[in-house]
Fold this sequence. Notes:
Layout: H1 7-18, H2 23-35, H3 37-60, H4 62-67, H5 70-92, H6 105-121, H7 124-133, H8 146-175, H9 177-180, H10 183-205
Helix pairs in contact: 1-8, 2-3, 2-6, 2-8, 2-10, 3-6, 3-7, 3-8, 5-6, 5-10
Transmembrane segments: 6-27, 116-138, 150-172, 192-209
Main location: membrane
Protein name: Lysine transporter LysE
Amino acid sequence: MIDFSILPVYLTAVIALLLIPGPDMLLIASSSLSYGKKVGVFASLGNATSGVLLTLLAAMGVSALIAMNPIALEVLRIMGGAYLLKMGWDCMRTEPSDAPKVEQQKGLAKTLYRRAVISNLLNPKALIFFVMFLPQFVSTQSTATSGEQMLVLGLLLNVLGLLFNLFLVTTVGSLGKSLLKNEKFRTYQHKVMGLVFFVLAIWLLASQVPTPSL
Length: 214
């Protein structure tokens, strides 16, 4: 399906990208620190789910059509920023008495999964990334079509990204284990996540989204 001669270069590029701090890493790390490993795992799965969906759109050429439309990108950016601001506001207005107990983590994990999926799909930079990054590694030496190659490359990227994020969850979740037993911290854990969502919203709304020339 892909030209294996380019695989070492592709894997090197993917690893380098995974090590660069970004919004996804911030959301997953904060979820793990504030609510525990289980919630962090679900946030990671949400990120991977959105990545698979973006890969499918890129392979079908749909993402390229959207990325070439400045208005569509601007709408996505505003919608994504507004969604993150709403999540931040919801967290900030949550009463301390609503801090989740350990046995309530399941419902919270599902919520973070859904938020991770939606926030990433509404991030135009994520869409443009797939449009600009994956085609660089499509080979004319392969018998597979460019769409098929992008699908395989994108899925490989998402698998490696999920493994990296799960490692991040394990590391950060272990550091935050003692915090979850601290009643004072648990009182403010929603505020911490609210601040993270506000930071992500500002990050997205203040950024300039380039339009790729295809």
